[in-house]
Design a protein that fits this description.
The protein is of the alpha/beta class. It has 27 helices and 22 strands. Strand 17 and strand 18 form a beta hairpin. Helix 7 runs parallel beside helix 8, helix 10 runs parallel beside helix 11 and helix 16 crosses helix 17.
C-alpha cells in the first residue's frame, strides 16, 4: 500500500515544527510523477506563510520563476522552496536558490521516479546525484514506496549571542562591523577583504557598518556589486538601522550623509567623489576592475562569498591577494564562519556543499612531497572513474576552483555528462605508493564538420552549439578548414598552487599535445583572458595568437585571446596564414580598437606582430627623411604634431628591438605614439602636472634612445 496524504500530513507537521525549533533546514526529495509530487509538496508548503516554486508547471497560486531566471531571487528569503527538476537539474540554480531558504524552512526537490527506478540509464551526473540523495541526511519520499523516512534528529545548538551596540547576531558579525568601520576611521590604504559562506550575515554587517558611519559623521559611501540585487540585504539592513523607509531605491540619505549604488563600470567611468567604497560579491567582478577600484580609492572594503553558486571566493582571494600585496601591503583579511540565517551544521547546507563540491579544496601543501622527491606522471582519466571515486572528483574540482574563480557547480555535470569532454591529469606519487592529482587539463573535442556546414559557419549563416574554437577559426578569421578539421579546445588548465612554477603546467601541455597526436587531431587551442604573463606562458608552450577579441569579455573584464598549436600538416598549412592575418590586423587595430589596451599587454602583442611582419610595409618612410626630422625633434625643434610620422616609425622599430626595456617612460611613449591616447589621458594616467610635462618626458625619452641607437 502506497503512502497517502493522511500519512504525510502528520509527518510534514512534525518535520516543520522540528525544523523551526532547531532553526535548521532540511532537504525533502519527492520522487514520482509530477502530479503526485505537486500534490505531496502541498502538504509541506501549506505549513508556511509563503513559499516559492522554481521551475515549470507551478501551481496557479504560487510565486514562481523559471530555472533560467533563478538568480533574480538572490538577496531574497523564503520559508519554503519547491525546486522542480522534472525538466532537468540545473546545479547552479539549485545552489543559488538553496541559500534563499531561511532557518526552519524546507527545500522540496521534485524529481522523476526514473532517477531511482532506472538509475543506470541516467546521465552520469544524475547517477551521482541519486547516490547522494539516498544518504541519511536527505528525507527521500518515493511514490513507489510504502513507508515514510524517519524524522531526523533535532539536537542543534541555538545561538543566544546578544549585541546591544549594533544588534549583530554573532560575535563574528560584530567583529566584522568593527573591522569595516576601521577602514574609514583608521589609516588610509588599508583595505579590508571580508569573506564568508552564504547565510553568515556578511551583507548585513556591511549595511550595519555603513549605517553606523552615516550616523557618526558626514560621509559619502559608494556601494558596487555585479547587480543591485546582490546588495538588497545591505541596503535593507542599513535603512533599518537608520530608521528610514526603503523601497528598493539605489540610494539612502541620512542627515548630511548618503550611500549610493553604482554598477562597477559606471563607478570607474564617472569616478564619483566618495569617502568610502564597499565592493560586495567581489569574486564575481573582473579582477582588472577590482585593481582599478583599489588604485582610485583610499578606503575600500571588499566582500565576497567564499563558496558560492557563481563560483568561488577562494580563487578570487588567491589571485587578488597578489594585487593587494603590490598596491596596499597593509591590507587586512577577515572571515565569518558561524551561520546566522540557520543553525550550525545545517543539514541542507551540508548536503549542498557535498553535492555541488562547494567546500572542496586542494590537497594541503604539507601532504605534498618536497621538490627534490617529486615524481610526476601523466595520464587521461575516464568519466567512469570520476563517477565511482568521489575523492578523485573532489580533488580535481578543488584544483579547478582554486585556479578559476568562475568555476561553478554546472561544470561538474558538464565534466561528467559531456562525451566530448576529456580530462588529462598530472599525478604525484607519494612515498607510500598512492597518488594525488596536482594538475589537470580539461579539453573539449570539436570540429569535424562537413565542407558545406563549415562554409555556412564561415559566412555567419550557421552556428552550432559548442565547438567554440573550431567555429571561431572559421567565422572570426575566415578559415573554413578550422571547422572541417578535428581539434581540441583547452577549457581549463590548473596546477596545485604549492607546485606552480616547477614546469608541471608545461609538461601537462606537452602530454596533451602527444595525446592530441594519438587521437589524430589536427590542432589544439585555447581562449583566455589576455594578460602578459598568460600570453607568455602559452607562447612558450607553442600556442600562437590568431585572434584578439575587439570587445572586452563581460565576465573577465579583459579581451579574450585565441591561440592555437597545429598538430597535423593540414593545420600547419593555415596556421601561419592565421598568424599573419592576426599580426596585420593588430597593427591596424592598435589605434582604434586597442588604443586602451593595458600597456604591457599591448607591447607584448605589438612586438609579436612586428616580428611576424615587415613593419616597414605598414609605415613606409625613407630613413633619410625620418632621421632628419628626428634629429631636429631631439634638438628641440619640431613639435610632436609635426614629427609624428617619424616618431611613430622609429618607436615601432625600437619597441620591437632586443634593446627595448619596458619602464614607465617607455610606457608613456607607447600609450601616446602607438596607441594614440589623448594628451589629457596621458597626463592623468602617468600623474603628470600638465601636457607640457608629458611632451617633455616624451621628447627626453626619444632623444635618449634614438641617439644611443645611432
Amino acid at each position: 500500500m502506497s503512502i497517502t496524504m493522511s500519512d504525510l500530513l502528520p509527518f510534514s507537521s512534525q518535520l516543520i515544527a522540528q525544523a523551526k525549533n532547531a532553526n535548521c533546514r532540511h532537504l525533502v526529495v519527492l520522487a514520482g510523477d509530477l502530479a503526485w509530487g505537486t500534490e505531496f509538496a502541498n502538504s509541506f508548503t501549506s505549513g508556511y506563510p509563503s513559499y516559492f516554486w522554481a521551475g515549470e508547471n507551478a501551481p496557479e497560486n504560487a510565486d514562481s520563476l523559471s530555472i533560467k531566471k533563478a538568480k533574480k531571487l538572490l538577496g531574497q528569503e523564503t520559508h519554503c522552496l519547491v525546486f522542480n527538476a522534472h525538466n532537468g537539474f540545473d546545479a547552479d540554480a539549485f545552489g543559488a536558490l538553496s541559500g534563499t531558504v531561511i532557518g526552519g524552512g524546507l527545500l522540496l526537490l521534485l524529481v522523476p521516479s526514473g532517477w531511482f527506478d532506472d538509475t543506470q540509464t541516467q546521465l552520469p551526473f544524475i547517477q551521482r546525484l541519486v547516490r547522494l540523495l539516498s544518504q541519511p541526511d536527505v528525507l527521500l519520499i518515493q511514490q513507489s514506496e510504502t513507508c515514510l523516512p524517519d524524522l531526523p534528529p533535532s539536537d542543534f545548538a541555538r545561538n543566544d549571542y546578544q549585541d546591544l551596540r549594533f544588534n549583530c547576531l554573532t560575535q563574528e558579525q560584530t567583529l566584522a562591523v568593527e573591522a569595516i568601520k576601521k577602514v574609514v576611521t583608521g589609516h588610509r590604504k588599508r583595505p579590508l577583504v571580508l569573506t564568508a559562506d552564504r547565510g553568515r550575515g556578511k551583507s548585513s554587517a556591511l549595511g550595519i557598518a555603513a549605517a553606523s558611519l552615516m550616523t557618526e559623521r558626514r560621509i559619502r559611501i559608494a556601494v558596487t556589486s555585479p547587480s543591485f540585487a546582490n546588495v538588497n540585504t545591505l541596503f535593507t539592513r542599513a535603512a533599518n538601522a537608520l530608521g528610514i523607509d526603503y523601497n528598493q531605491q539605489k540610494s539612502l540619505s541620512f542627515e548630511s550623509s548618503d550611500m549610493v549604488f553604482f554598477a562597477p563600470d559606471t563607478l570607474l567611468t564617472t569616478l564619483p567623489d566618495i569617502d568610502f567604497l564597499i565592493v560586495d560579491e567581489a569574486a564575481a567582478i573582473p579582477a582588472p576592475l577590482l585593481s582599478q577600484m583599489l588604485s582610485q580609492y583610499n578606503r575600500v572594503a571588499f566582500a565576497s562569498t567564499i563558496h558560492g553558486y557563481e563560483g568561488t571566493g577562494r580563487g578570487f582571494a588567491i589571485k587578488f591577494r597578489q594585487q593587494l600585496e603590490l598596491q596596499t601591503p597593509q591590507w587586512r583579511q577577515l572571515s565569518i564562519t558561524q551561520p546566522i540565517r540557520w543553525a550550525i551544521n545545517d543539514p541542507l547546507e551540508n548536503w549542498v556543499f557535498r553535492a555541488l563540491l562547494l567546500d572542496t579544496d586542494v590537497i594541503p601543501s604539507h601532504r605534498l612531497s618536497t621538490r627534490a622527491s617529486l615524481e610526476i606522471t601523466y595520464r587521461t582519466v575516464p568519466t567512469k572513474e570520476l563517477i565511482v571515486d568521489e575523492a578523485l572528483l573532489s580533488s580535481l574540482f578543488g584544483l579547478l576552483i582554486n585556479a578559476h574563480y568562475q568555476t561553478s557547480p554546472n561544470d561538474i555535470s558538464q565534466l561528467l555528462d559531456d562525451a566530448n569532454m576529456q580530462l588529462l591529469v598530472a599525478e604525484l606519487k607519494s612515498d607510500e605508493g598512492d597518488s594525488s592529482i596536482v594538475g589537470c587539463c580539461l579539453v573539449s573535442l570539436e570540429g569535424g564538420f562537413d565542407t558545406d556546414l563549415a562554409q555556412q559557419i564561415m559566412l555567419g549563416k550557421r552556428r552550432v552549439k559548442g565547438h567554440l574554437l573550431a567555429q571561431s577559426v572559421a567565422a572570426h578569421i575566415g578559415i573554413p578548414q578550422g571547422a572541417t578539421q578535428h581539434c581540441a579546445r583547452i577549457l581549463r588548465i590548473a596546477v596545485h598552487p604549492f607546485l606552480q612554477q616547477q614546469g608541471i603546467g608545461s609538461s601537462l601541455l606537452d602530454f596533451t599535445q602527444e595525446w592530441a597526436g594519438q587521437q589524430q587531431l589536427d590542432y589544439i587551442g585555447t581562449s583566455f583572458a589576455a594578460a602578459p604573463e598568460l600570453v607568455s606562458f602559452w607562447r612558450k608552450a607553442g600556442f600562437l595568437p590568431i585572434r584578439l577579441g575587439v570587445t572586452k569579455d563581460a565576465s573577465s573584464g579583459t579581451h579574450s585571446l585565441l591561440t592555437v598549436q597545429p598538430i597535423s600538416d593540414a593545420a600547419q598549412s593555415w596556421q601561419q596564414c592565421a598568424v599573419s592575418l592576426f599580426s596585420a590586423n593588430f597593427l591596424s587595430q592598435r589605434v582604434e580598437q586597442f588604443n586602451e589596451l593595458e600597456n604591457e599587454l599591448f607591447i607584448s602583442l605589438f612586438q609579436y606582430s612586428s616580428a611576424q611582419l615587415d613593419i616597414a610595409t605598414y609605415m613606409p618612410l625613407p630613413l633619410s627623411f625620418r632621421d632628419l626630422q628626428l634629429s631636429c625633434y631631439c634638438q628641440g625643434g619640431l613639435g610632436y604634431d609635426l614629427a609624428i610620422a617619424s616618431i611613430e616609425s622609429w618607436l615601432s622599430e625600437w619597441v620591437s628591438s632586443d634593446d627595448f626595456i619596458h619602464d614607465p617612460t617607455a610606457a608613456l611613449a607607447v600609450v601616446k605614439v602607438l596607441q594614440k591616447q589623448s594628451w589629457d589621458t596621458v597626463v592623468a594616467q602617468f600623474s603628470l602636472p600638465s601636457r607640457k610635462h608629458a611632451e617633455h618626458a616624451l621628447r627626453s625619452y626619444i632623444t635618449q634612445h634614438y641617439q644611443s641607437s645611432l
